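As a warm-up, study this chain.
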Amino acid sequence: MKEETIKYPGFRWFVAITYIVVIISSALVLISITPLMGEVAKSIGQDVGVTAGIVMSTFNLLVALGAIAGGPIVDKFGVTKVWFGCLALLILGQLLTPVLGHSGTGMTVLRVIQGAGTGPIMGCCAALAAQWFPKKERGILTGMQGLAMGAGVAIGTIVGPALAQVTGNWQTGLACEAGFTILALIMAIVVAVGPKPPVVDVQASDSEHLGDIAKEVKTAILQPATISALICAFGLAWVFQAMGDLTPSYLAIDPPVGLGKGALLGGTIFSTFSVAYMIGAVSSQFFTDKVCKGSTRTTIFIGFIISAITVFGLKISGIVLNQSILIVVLIISGLFMSMIQPQVNAFLAVNYPEHLVGKVGGTIYGLSVFGGVGGATAGAYALHATGGYLMGLNIIVIVCVIGTLGTIFLKPPKMYISASENSTDSGIQQ
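Now compare it with the structure written out below.
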């Protein structure tokens, strides 16, 4: 079905808002624990490096596996059913935190449950954009994903320590966050009983003349543009995860390991990065169109380069010991780092056929999350091996530089170019 014949209901904006709330709920689960890493380490009897590995590497591994599986699952069962299952797992993990959060084994089980619930949620953005939004609006939805992640990180780094302080322990504090996840579940139910997406069964209707869908997916994934998009997404996942894992605890933990600002103040300072991340994500399309003349590659390249410079700045004593300068550096870092993933998602949503974008997007996101696993694991190992954070920050800078290589072949695949020529928002195709 041609796009000009499809009527996209206004309900799509409620769907977008729901997706924001769903992502925020998963981001809370991801990040709220990081400013509390010192307290978690004491509770389970491990050093901070080992604790970070248990808490973050386990979570991200399950996110990666869940995102890869999420593409086909979304295609088979639909977005809302996937949301139901994922949110149920998140709620279960949150409510079990006071029960299982006193040992390394218990924390591993919790993070397995929570990671499995997060992966498919994060992997369904491209499919959701293709089903509910015209091509000219898909960049808006992919930007909203970055906004939601930034909002969740900003809220989590403040609310996690605050709830721990109010309730008297971090386990009960994190369990209280289940209330927000329940709200997300309620909104998902409204989406399920509301109007259906205008593009529901694109695979059945559009792929009849294209042959075996598995061969199509394989061909799409092996396109140079897809591989380039994967490199960019992988690098961003590594950098963002390592930044979120290391920086809050770096700010919070006492010297000589950290900067000694405490969990609440450290989380509050880091929230400036998260707020900037929100702003950068939703303005990434404007930046691409107006500043980069429609070049997605340029936006992503700039995002990685400025991220490398600002993260390197976190090693400089003149920056980290001056709170005002530190906040400015974190804001700049968040603004430009956040522009990378929305542009990768928008590139996929615009330049790949609707019946493939869910599988390709889910596969790319799922594989890229292994970058998050790498970021979490490398950061935890560096912290454990050196007793400090500088090596972990060095690794982030190196990965940022590598990420720029992903822009080399990020051009619309020639075999799908005819599908993109009718798009009115050609600015995000390059």
